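Is flavin-adenine dinucleotide placement plausible here? Inputs below.
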Amino acid sequence: MSEYESHEYDVVVIGAGGAGLRAAIEAARSGSKTAIICKSLLGKAHTVMAEGGAAAALGNADDRDGWKVHFKDTMKGGKYLNNWRMAQIHAQESADRIRELEQWGAVFDRTPAGLINQRNFGGHTYPRLAHVADSTGLEIIRTLQEKGIHSGIDIFMEYTVSHLLQDEDGTCTGCVAYNRVDGAMHAYSAKSTVLATGGITRCWSVCSGSWEYTGDGHALALNAGAELIDMEFVQFHPTGMVWPPSVRGILVTEGVRGEGGVLRNSEGKRFMFDNVPEMFKGDHAETEEEATEWVRQVVAGEKASVRRPPELLTRDVVAKAINKEVAEGRGSTHGGAYLDIANQRSAEEIIAKLPSMHHQFRELAGVDITKEPMEVGPTAHYVMGGVRVDAESQESTVNGLFAAGEVASGLHGANRLGGNSLSDLITFGKRAGEHAAKRADTLAQPGIEDAQVQSAITEMLAPLNREGGENPGLIYDEMRDMMQAKVGIIRTKEEMTEAMDDLAAFNERQAACFPGTSRKYNSGWHQALDLKNMVDVSTAATLAALTREESRGGHTRDDFPGEIEEWGKILNIIHMENGE
Ligand code: FAD
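Reply from A.M.:
I modeled the complex. Tokens:
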């Protein structure tokens, strides 16, 4: 029998990014005894890395904007596979959530009239992203954390949740976690549990995500019997760094293009003019002169009276266009495209609007973006797929289990518009916290069933008790390379069928790996436990991608190019049956 410490809460939130913090604040404000459990230190969640801004139709930079235009843009960007009700709630409520952040102390960039300033981003008809230069996530996390720690929330930092607890009806009754520092085990009884664990992009070797993005929440939900939807839709952001190799994949914010940056191939051609899909024809400039005039108007603070440059097409379109240039031999020196802001804006403007990008390229690539173009290429950035939730409450198909933020699905359909994640976190984080608290109000504290906790602990400790085996780091690297090669930006039946076999083999290897014997800050052990989740979510993503025989948004099939009408009405739902 293993020892563990027991805890009791009304609401347990797993994750301390924007969605988790906002959910916990709302639950605590509703009077629930609330805890947050997070894998890293508070303040280190992925949200802190967000750069360009949070989309909300405040109408400050252009008063033609409003929730209906935001709703339309979101649905169109998602290729109409979005949950329309979530898109409506998001468009209607996100502006209030941004204003609320301002009341809680967030200092956004300002318009000359002193209102929250908004910048242009791909797929948004009007300038819509509330921002703080190119470090918006940092300001949002700082604000939510300050609000959160004064709301009486208990915080368990550097704890990883490995299992959900369930009663005989399958209702979620809490979770089990281990402390990463000393390996101690903890069991939580919770009337409501909120998953806010972020995304899965660490499953690909070229990605913009941090070490935490191993899809834990997706796997926890799947293993608890919840449904996942849209898992084939993985967003490859068009502009990650491509050089030097040690920084490949690190994000270059879309804010660069929002501020007027242009994309060129090795022949100096502005190739996006040749890549405007039928559904976006009419929305974008057709000549360099028109695009240049748009930038002039934006810089002058005028309402744009001409069409946006084609660099501001949605991310799926731009990523595929860059991929095509490289594949056809017109890529940049290191296999990407050239992104130039130096010839569009003054050095002072670039440093004021994009200070992190200026610093990032100077320090990591030795490139001065006020003088030279950047080299950029697609990087796995965001998963549109995740836990299927009720639009109003964010409850999953498992009673008592809620999900918000990147781990949840529905809002973005086949492709997310930039900026719509930060606003998603605060809009649906709030709703998840509110409804989790409401549910908790009606229930008695569930008991912690010792046998379930013991079984979870036995599974967790298994890697430490093996007598030899492969190091988990080797499996981790190989699996990510395999997903990059076979389930990447362009997909085929042949490669994905191979990937399914490879994943079955990786599953066997992870189940036999050996990270050493220590429970004290043993990162190999943590990785061994993450690997199981990575296999589960990679399998879900591959299976969904294999099933969808068309190309749409973040899912491109070489063997099924183009959208097929019937698929526009179908969602792939993944769930476990008898552990499979
Ligand atoms: P996260 O912020 O990732 O938080 C997840 C939390 O869950 C963390 O606290 C983690 O420790 C915890 N966790 C995970 N697994 C476990 C576990 N097993 N046990 C316990 N805790 C766990 N979007 C925009 O809208 N605008 C932008 O400008 C923008 N810029 C971006 C820039 C970069 C570089 C990147 C990578 C993304 C960007 N995005 C942007 C996307 C956006 O930042 C993310 O989608 C969003 O922050 C996810 O927030 P979240 O709250 O869902 O999860």
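Short version: The CA atoms of residues 48 and 141 lie 6 Å apart.
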